[in-house]
Write a structure and sequence with these properties.
Blueprint: E1 3-11, H1 15-26, E2 35-38, H2 80-94, E3 99-100, E4 105-110, E5 116-120, E6 123-132, E7 154-157, E8 171-175, H3 179-190, E9 194-198, E10 205-206, H4 212-227, H5 235-239, E11 241-242, H6 245-252, E12 262-266, E13 269-272, E14 277-279, E15 282-285, E16 310-311, E17 314-315, E18 321-323, H7 335-370
Parallel strand pairs: 1-2, 1-6, 2-3, 6-18, 7-15, 8-9, 8-15, 10-11
Antiparallel strand pairs: 4-5, 5-6, 12-13, 13-14, 16-17
C-alpha cells in the first residue's frame, strides 16, 4: 500500500480532532501535504453519530462550539446524533479540512529517524507529530461480578442502547453513577419498564452552576492524576450530577434512588451489599468508557502507576505525540481547548524543526560553495 508523508497526522474527527485540524490549517500547515485527519467513521459526527435517538439535543450533557463556528440554536427535540453529525459535517466543509474516511488505524510505531508511522487499513502515513483524538466510544468498560456468566437475561452496555421502548414491561437493573444511568432510568420508567438503580457510592447531585470556573476546577482535578502518570478518573467523579428539575422529580418519584452496590449476579437477578436481592430481566451497564488507545500499545507509553504521564496534551515519554480526549479533555468541557493546545504545540515543533533543517541545508550549500 502507498505511504503518505505529512508533518502532522490527527487521528479522529470528533470535537478535539476537528479543533486541532482547524488550528493546524489556519496557522500555516497545508491540507493533505502538511497535515491530515484520519477518521474511522463512515461520516462526520465522531462518537455522537452513534448515540441513541432518544438522546435529544435538549437532554444531552453539553455540546460545545467548534472554533469560529457557533452551533446556533437547533431544535432541542432533535436527536443529538443528527444535530452533531450535521454540525461537524458543515464544519469540515466550511474549513475544507482534509478528513480521510473511513480509515481504521491499526497501530502506531516509531521509525528509525524518530517519526511516527501510522498503519491503517488503507495504507500508511508517516508523520513528524501525531495528535491522537480517538476518545472513548470504542472502549466500553464492563465491570466483572461473580455470577455474571450465569445470568439468564439480557446484558448490554450504554454503547448498545437504542430505545427505552425495547424494554417496556421488563425488569431492568441499571448499573452506574453517571449522567447516562440517570437518563436511562427516567426513559425506561416512562416507557413502562420496572427499574432498579445500583451505584457503588451514593449518587452525588449538585446545584452548582456548570460555569467556566467550575469547568476549570474539574479539569485541574483530573489533570493532577495524568501529570502523575496515574489512570484518569471519570469526569463525572469530579463533576457530580446536575440537580435539574427533571432529576429532582425523579428522586421524588423514587426512580432515582440507588439500592447501593452489587455483590453478585444470580441466574434470575442480583444481590446487593445490604443483603437484599431482586429479580431482573435486563442488566444495563452504564459503567462508562476507557480511553481508546489500543493502537498505541507498541509505543509502551504507560507508567508504573498504570496511566500515561502527560504535560498538558503532550505525552512525556514521547513528546511528538499528543493525546486529546484523554484525562481532563475526555469530555466536551475541555476537548476544544485541548485540540487547540495540541495543534499549537505541534506547530511550534514543526516550525523549530523546519528552521533547523533550513540551517542545515544552508550550511551544507555554503560549504559546497566554498569548496
Amino acid at each position: 500500500m502507498r505511504e503518505h508523508n505529512v508533518e502532522v497526522a490527527v487521528i479522529g474527527a470528533g470535537q478535539a480532532g476537528l479543533s486541532a485540524a482547524y488550528y493546524l490549517k489556519h496557522r500555516g500547515l497545508a491540507a493533505e501535504s502538511g497535515f491530515v485527519v484520519l477518521d474511522a467513521n463512515d461520516g462526520p459526527g465522531g462518537a455522537w453519530r452513534h448515540r441513541w435517538d432518544s438522546l435529544t439535543l435538549g437532554s444531552a450533557h453539553g455540546i460545545h462550539d467548534l472554533p469560529r463556528f457557533p452551533l446556533g440554536t437547533p431544535d432541542p427535540r432533535e436527536p443529538a446524533s443528527s444535530v452533531v453529525s450535521r454540525y461537524y459535517g458543515a464544519y469540515e466543509t466550511e474549513h475544507a479540512l482534509p478528513v480521510q474516511r473511513p480509515v481504521r488505524v491499526l497501530g502506531v510505531s516509531q521509525t528509525a529517524d524518530g517519526r511516527l508511522r501510522i498503519s491503517t487499513d488503507r495504507g500508511e502515513w508517516v508523520a513528524r507529530f501525531v495528535i491522537n483524538a480517538t476518545g472513548t466510544w470504542d472502549k466500553p468498560y464492563w465491570p466483572s461480578y461473580p455470577g455474571q456468566r450465569d445470568f439468564r437475561g439480557t446484558q448490554l452496555h450504554t454503547r448498545d442502547f437504542r430505545s427505552a421502548a425495547d424494554f417496556a414491561g421488563r425488569r431492568v437493573l441499571v448499573v452506574g453513577g453517571g449522567t447516562s444511568a440517570v437518563q436511562f432510568l427516567l426513559q425506561l420508567h416512562d416507557a413502562g419498564a420496572g427499574t432498579v438503580w445500583s451505584t457503588r457510592r451514593p449518587p452525588e447531585f449538585t446545584r452548582r452552576p456548570f460555569d467556566a470556573e467550575w469547568g476549570r476546577g474539574v479539569e485541574q482535578a483530573v489533570s493532577e492524576r495524568t501529570r502523575a502518570g496515574l489512570p484518569p478518573l471519570s469526569v463525572v467523579a469530579a463533576t457530580k450530577l446536575p440537580l435539574t428539575a427533571q432529576y429532582q422529580q425523579g428522586i421524588d418519584d423514587g426512580v432515582l434512588l440507588s439500592r447501593g452496590p452489587l455483590t453478585r449476579l444470580t441466574p434470575d437477578g442480583a444481590e446487593f451489599a445490604d443483603g437484599s436481592a431482586i429479580a431482573a430481566d435486563v442488566f444495563l451497564w452504564a459503567t462508562g468508557f476507557r480511553a481508546s488507545l489500543d493502537h498505541l500499545a507498541s509505543l509502551h507509553l504507560r507508567e508504573a502507576g498504570g496511566g500515561i504521564r502527560m504535560d498538558g496534551p503532550r505525552v512525556v515519554k514521547l513528546p511528538q505525540l499528543f493525546l486529546v480526549g484523554y484525562g481532563e479533555s475526555s469530555s466536551t468541557l475541555g476537548a476544544t481547548r485541548a485540540g487547540r493546545a495540541a495543534a499549537m504545540a505541534a506547530l511550534q515543533g514543526w516550525s523549530t524543526s523546519s528552521q533547523a533543517n533550513s540551517v542545515t541545508v544552508s550550511s551544507s550549500q555554503s560549504r559546497r560553495s566554498t569548496a
